[in-house]
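Comment thread on ticket #2218

A.B. wrote:
> Attaching the input chain for the structure job we discussed in standup.
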Amino acid sequence: KMPEAKDEFINQIERFVQNELRNHDGSHDWWHIHRVRNNALTLAKHEGITSKEDLQIIEVASLLHDVRDWKYAKEQRGSLEDVVEDILKDYPHKKTTLDVINNIGFKEELKTETKSTMDDASYAIRGDVKFKIVSDADRLDAIGAIGIGRTFCFGGAKKNPMHDPTIPPNINLTREEYQAAHNPGMVNTTINHFHEKLLKLKDMMKTESGTNMARRRHEVMERFLKDFHDEWEGH
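C.D. wrote:
> Ran it. Output below, let me know if you need it in another format.
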């Protein structure tokens, strides 16, 4: 049967996001967004979300979640709020959508060297299943076979070495250290990124279906790392 015609609002957001991310490397390009949306809608189904409104918030937040991402901030001007103001101006769920996007991401969950001050909106949204679904959907794209590909893609774009046995991973990274690692001139290795972030994601999933999907993808990464180190040693 014909797929339901996507509404013009979603089409408009897709075009906007494609344009916003057009200069990103392949780790955070439009196809990453496409996959995260697919993951999110799959999780929503498993988690029993049926309301059209909720499904749309999940879809819109998935589509917009990497607009003005801090990892690419030097290439961009203007905050997420400013940039999406126009496209979301008539959307009744703009605030929920922005709360989801602003609380998503690994760095938001790292312990910080200063006292963490989480405002009420952040507390509220973190209990919302829509937030949990979009967060899990993004994390699922960071692990497994796709996660491996994206990690090397990002590392290559940053000109990081793949692996250097003399640079050990910083396993208990703080938020400040994680952000500093993305500064120009900071060298970290792509393999370290697995230990510092990606292998932790399985236990940070927020929904049952996300946790189940993460398990298999986690095993893919563990096998890969074992093979990588074996081959590195000439086995």
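A.B. wrote:
> Thanks. Noting for the ticket: The radius of gyration is 18 Å.
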